[in-house]
Write a structure and sequence with these properties.
7% strand; 180 residues; 3 strands; 2 domains; globular; mainly alpha; Arc Repressor Mutant, subunit A
């Protein structure tokens, strides 16, 4: 067994569970636990950049979705929710905050007078261009902790796994689908 002083937190947790519940296979924690910890750490690192621009992660995501839309840099709120990791419920609050900051505007849709369109303002475009540039440098810095071959392999593995998990998410979960 590996010397506990060299074990990471996940390995220590697994060792505890193996001792307490030897009847269970706790090997999935080796991957899932580390991914969870890594996601938390990556979020912390990414949020440092967002904070420099006085943006939350969700604000950054909304501004990026508008910028990616191309000229005239606008989308309907529902479309923004579909192009971001922000729920429709949270979208209205984010848009309100971004509008108060002068980064977006809201107007009635030309096609549907009940609908609204959110557009990136010039200051919003300038801000997201600067923030996204720094964000990409930050992501590069984080990814450079891996070799190019490791990064390529990880991208392939994660893309395949995510595709399978998302496909499975469209299927109903039943007790038998969770059984061995």
């Amino acid at each position: 067994m590996e010397d506990e002083s060299f074990q990471d937190r996940v390995a220590r947790i697994q060792a505890d569970w193996r001792r307490e519940r030897p009847d269970l296979d706790v090997s999935p924690q080796a991957v899932i636990g580390r991914l969870h910890r890594l996601a938390d750490r990556l979020s912390e690192e990414l949020c440092l950049v967002y904070g420099r621009y006085d943006l939350s992660e969700g604000d950054f995501d909304v501004l990026c979705a508008l910028r990616r839309a191309g000229e005239p840099y606008e989308r309907a709120p529902g479309e923004l929710a579909a192009h971001t990791m922000v729920t429709t419920g949270a979208m209205s609050k984010r848009i309100d905050r971004l509008e108060r900051a002068g980064l977006v505007t809201r107007r009635r849709s030309d096609d549907d007078q009940r609908g609204r369109i959110v557009a990136l303002t010039e200051p919003g475009r300038d801000l997201i261009d600067r923030a996204f540039t720094e964000h990409m440098r930050n992501e590069r810095h984080l990814l450079d902790l891996l070799t190019p071959a490791e990064a390529e392999l990880l991208e392939t593995l994660l893309a395949g796994w995510l595709s399978r998990v998302e496909h499975r998410a469209t299927e109903p979960v039943t007790p038998s689908s969770l059984a061995d």
